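help with these C-alpha cells:
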Amino acid sequence: MIFEGIDPLGQDAVREAAQAILARRDGMGLGQVPWSLAELRPDSDDHAWLLRWARGLDAVGCATHLGGGVVTGGFTRRAALGLLLLFLASEHGRREASEGQIWPSVLSIGFRPRTESLLFFGGGQPTQDHKDALEVAARRLNLRHVFGIEGLQNWFDTIFLQFGFTRRGFVRRLPYWLAGQGQPQSLRRLLAPGPLGSAGFLQVWDEIRNFRQNNTEVRLRKAITQTAWVLPEWADEVVRQARTHPELGTAATARTVHDIGPQPFLAVPRLTWSPPHPPMFQCPLVNPSALDLPADVYRVQAAGRLVGSLVRQPDGTFARVGFDEIQLTPSSPQVSAQLLLPDGTPANSAVLELWGQGEDISVFQMPKGARIQDPWNEPLSPAGAYALVLSADLRPHPQPAMWHDGGHGWRFWFLPPGWSRSFKVFLGEEVLWEPRLGEGPVGEPAWAQDVWASIRGGPTVRIGARFQVDIEHGVESQVHFARFGGVPLMLESETSTLTVSDPVHLSGTLLGENPQIHIGVQHGGERRTLRQNVWIDPVGVARLGTDGWEAMGPCGPLSSPPGPLSADAARGSLFRIYPPPSFAKASDLALLEGDTWVGRVKADASPLGRLGGWGARLAVRRGPYNATEDVLGVSEEVTAPGVVSDVDLWTDPGRARVRLTDALEPGPGHRLVWWAEDGEMATSDVAAQGTEDGGVWWSADIPGQDPPIIAVALAYGGQAEGPASRIGAWWAETWADSLAEAGDDDAPFLAAMMRWFHLPVLGGYAFQRVRAFVQKFPAECLAAWLLEDSPAEGLAAPPLDESWLSAVRSLFWDWRPSADQAHVVLLSLAQTAQLDEEAVCRAGTWLHRADPLLLCRVMRSWFRGYLVPAKGDAAATVYVASLLVCVGELPNVEALEATASTQLSLVAETLGVDPHFVDVGLLQRARQHLLGQPVESRARFNLGLAMGVEPFRRLLALRLLPLTLPGA
C-alpha cells in the first residue's frame, strides 16, 4: 500500500500522500520518461484511502492548496493537491467510470458540498482551479499527458492515460477493441510508438490478443499478475471477454494502431418505394456495439429532425427508442445525420448522400434500393425494376405511370419490370439520357473531342459568387443547350468556336467533386448530348442544411466573412471549408476564433467545433503563428444565443415571447431573466408554451418597454433549484450603448451581466464601447470576470474557460493602470480590505490565469505608486519573489533560473515551434509591450494565441515579473 500509515483526514494528508507517491515513483525508477500512475501498482487499499481522503477534504484546506504558494516537500500546494486529485480520478475512474466519461464517477464519491463547489461547476465539469492543479501535477511529474495537443479533451484524456481503460469499458467492448474497432483514444495512444506509448501496456495487450488467437490461458493469467495495467480482480472477466464474439476477428497487430476518425454510425442509404406510397430512404444503423460510444444515452438526428434515441442496456448493448430504422423523406441530395450527447454535443456526424449531388439523373435498382453509380455506362435490363430521380424540368418518355413529386426541383419515377426498350429522358426535345441495353461501350464521334467546357477566368470561384462557363468547340459545331450541376445555362455565341453562359451562382448543387456538365451539340446532321466533368475549385464555407449545401453569407472578398454565426450551430451542424487552391492541404491551415485556437481545418464535412461565442471573428489562417492576415473569413462574429432563436417583446405589451431552437418542454425550474436599459434585472416564471410558424414559443410576463429591455435570457434554476444557469439569450443590437452612462454603483452589476448573459463583448459594434467601460471600471470588470463566485445574486457563475479568458485579454490589452487603479484591482481580486504578501499572491494568481502581461502591468504600477513609497525597494523584491513562487509553481525562488530554462523547451514543444521563436518572437515582444514600447500586430496576435497555453503563461510570468521592480 502506497499510503500506509497516513491519516487521510489528517491536517498534513495532502503533503504526506504526495511524498508517499514520489517515494514509490523513485523506488520503482519511474519518471525519467513519461509514465502513468497505474504503474505505481496501487491496490484496493490505496483506492479506499483516496476515497476517505476525498470525502473528508474540507473546503478551507482545498482552497488553500488550490491557491498555491507555500511549498510542501519540494511541491507547491497546488501541485500536491492536483496529484492526489489526478490519482483519485484515475483509480476510481478505472473501477467505476465508463469509457468516455470520468467526471460523473468522480462526483459520485461524495465530496463535502463546499469542497465540491471549489472543484466542480453545477453542470459537473471541473473548475479552472481544479484543471490547473491537474495540469501542474501531470507536467511536474512527467506523467503521460496531452496538454497542448490539438483537438483533445486535455484533462479528460490525460486522466485516461493514467490507467488505459475502465472495467466497464472492457466488459462491454474488449472483443471489438481486439478486432481494431472503436478503440478509445487512451488505448490507441498507449499502444502507438512515441512518448505516450507504453511497452508494458503493449506487452499485456499482445498477450490478450494472442490468447484470443488460441494461446494458453495460463500464459495470459501470468501476464495479468505481472502487469500494472489490469487489476488482479479483473483477470476472470478479461479471460472471458477476450474470446467472445469470435466472428469479429482479431486485428493483425497492435503495433500499427493509429488515431482515426469516428466510424460511421449509419450504413449507405437505400431507396424504398412501394407505389402508391411515396418513396423513402432507409438508413440502417451500424451495430452501436461496434462503435466507441461511451455515454449511456444518445439522441439520433437526421436531416435536422430528431428521430429517436439509443439507450444502453445492462448487457452493454443499445436499445432503439422511438425508431426501428431511420427513414428520410426525400428533400435534398445530401443530408446530415448525427449522434448527439444529452447536452447536444455531436458524438458522431455523417453526410448521407441520398442521390447524386449536382446530377440530373440518378438511378436505383429496385427493390434493393441500391444506387447505380454510373447510369451512363452501366447496362440496365428491361426485365428489372428501377427508380429514377430526375430534375423536375426533365421529361421521361414513355412516361411511367407511377411518379412522385419530391419538391425542391426533383421528381421520382418508377420503372416497373418490362419497361420499354425505347425509354429515354428528354430536355425539351433533346435526348439527355437513355439507358444502356447492350454490353458494348458507347463511343463518341471524333468531332466531340473538340468540345471542351471550363470556368471563365479560371477554376477558382468564391462560394455564392457568379461565374460563367466557356464552351469551346469546332467551327462546324453549334451548342444549343447546356446544363451544369442540374442547372440550365443560358447561352450566347461569342465567336464561331466559343459559346459562353450567362452568369450563374456557385451554389450547393455545384459543390460536389468535379460537377458534370451536359452539352447539347449539333455537328452537321448529327445531334449529341455530351457529358464532361468541369474542374472547379470552390472557395469559402458551406453549411449542410435541410435543403442541402448552402453558402454561408453573401459573396465578397475572401477575407470578408459572412455574418454572425451561432456557437451552437457551429457545434451542431456540418460544414465544409474550401480554402484557396494555393493551400493544397487543409491541414496546413488553422481555424481561429479571435486569437483562440479552435483546431486544424478538416478536409471532410464536420462541425466547426466548440466555439466561445463572445463576438470574436472566426477565420482560417496559415501557421497559425506569424499569420499576418486571414486566408478565409468564416464569420464576422461568433455569438452564443443558445436555445433562443428569436424574441418578440412588442406584439403583446407586458409579455415576452421567446422562440426556441429545440422543442423543449418548460418545467418549474425554468425562468425568464430580463435586463432593462436602466440597469434593472428581474426574473419571471415561464407562463405558457405554444407553436407558431413551425417553431416552439415560450412566453412570460414582463413589464412594459419603458425603459427598453436590452437583453432577455432563458435560465434554469433559481430559488429552490439553486443558482440559475443561462441556457439561451437574446440581446438588442445596441445593448452596449447602455454602458456609456454607467456610474460607480452600476459597474459591478453591468460587468456581471455581460458575462452571465454571454453577450458578444468582442463584436464589431460592442468592442469599443466595452473597452471604454473596462478602462473606466477595471477593478469591477476583473472581479466580475475572473472570480468564480456567482456574478449576481441568484445567478450561477459561468465556467472560466479559455475562450472567456481570451476575451478578457483582448479587452485589457492596451490598458495601463494608474497606481490607484492597480491598488483597487488587487484589493478586489484578493477580496480583502488590506494588502499583504499573501493577499497580493492571491490576486496575482487570478491575474496570471488570465494574462501574465496584465499581472505585470498591474504590479509594476502598484510597486511604484504604493509599495515602494511606503516600504522601500526591498519590500518589492520580497513581493516579486513570493509571486514567482506562487504563479510559477516554484519550490523556491532560487529555482527560478533552472525552471525558466526547462520551461522554455517545454513551451516550444507544446506550441510546436522553435525555442528561438519562443524567446525572440514571444518573450522579447512581451517585454517590449510591458515596457511601453510599440509591438507590431503580428507579434500581438502571436502572444494572444500563445496565452491560451498554460506553460507559456507560466514562463511569461517567470520572465517578466522581475521587470516589474523599480529600476528594472
About this structure: Residues 586 and 602 are 6 Å apart (CA to CA). The longest helix spans residues 77-96.
